[in-house]
Design a protein that fits this description.
TIM Barrel; globular; single chain; 10 strands; 265 residues; alpha/beta
Length: 265
């Protein structure tokens, strides 16, 4: 079985360098089946969120998979409607009840939202959860440059992770965020790394894929890895779940990386 390299976070914990996303996977058999299949294939990072409505299924899949809990890196997220110190702690407890877990590997603020004060209170709540060791690492999602600058300026704890949309078609747009994360040793997780499938018919991507005897999805996922991000693709199809995972036995040349980078122009 392929072993995914772990990446060290800025707090000393480690995150698998590749993961499985569960956005839009329905609670019940869909998320259960897909997540069990992913764990069977070798994925060890499972990403969910309160707003996805499928935390129960994810938790059940972890228990049914037969993979030891300590080998699985589980992430869920706090929605902006639960911002504030006490409400964030309450929302975390509810997520943990649905997941049926004793501890969480990573808890993220899902979106920065509009309320700066409540956002900062929520971050304080996440820091408290980490101090209590119920959560091993904390981070953010969809934070742009101004949000990252705010949290770095107002808190002693720097997010371990920033999860953002990242694929070749928005590379230029997201590069300032990537650069700032690098400066502060924040690991970037790439959601929708396959651009929701919309860009996989691109002739440039297909030309590279044909030359390397790979699928367009594998090429784009390898591109994200080469940019030192952690891609978290999702699928309900067993064959795609396996295909997406087969990206560790080939390389993209520098010229191919540049060609893919330029798709965002």
């Amino acid at each position: 079985m392929t072993r995914v390299t772990a990446i060290e976070l800025n707090n000393g914990e480690k995150v698998p360098g590749f993961g499985f996303g569960t956005w839009q996977l329905e609670e019940g058999n869909e998320v259960l089946g897909a997540t069990v299949e992913a764990l069977k294939t070798g994925y060890r990072l499972i990403d969910t969120a309160r707003i996805y409505g499928n935390e129960r299924g994810v938790g059940e899949a972890i228990r049914r998979s037969g993979v030891p809990r300590e080998e699985i890196f589980v992430t869920t997220k706090l929605w902006p409607s639960d911002f504030g110190y006490d409400s964030a702690l309450r929302a975390f407890d509810e997520s943990m009840q649905r997941l049926g877990l004793d501890y969480l590997d990573l808890y993220l603020i899902h979106w920065p939202g509009q309320d700066k004060q409540k956002r900062q209170e929520a971050w304080r709540a996440l820091i408290e959860l980490q101090k209590q060791k119920i959560v091993r690492s904390i981070g953010v999602s969809n934070y742009m440059v101004e949000h990252l600058q705010e949290v770095v300026k107002t808190s002693d704890v720097v997010p371990a992770v920033n999860q953002i949309e990242f694929h070749p078609y928005i590379y230029e747009e997201q590069k300032p965020v990537l650069d700032l994360c690098k400066k502060h040793d924040i690991v970037v997780e790439a959601y929708s790394p396959l651009s929701r499938g919309l860009g996989l018919n691109n002739i440039t991507v297909n030309d590279i894929a044909q030359r390397l005897e790979r699928t367009p999805a594998q090429v784009v996922l390898r591109w994200a890895i080469k940019h030192n991000t952690v891609p978290i693709p999702k699928s309900v199809h067993p064959e795609r779940i396996k295909e997406n995972f087969q990206v560790f036995d080939f390389e993209l040349a520098a010229e191919d990386m540049k060609i893919l980078d330029d798709l965002s122009r």
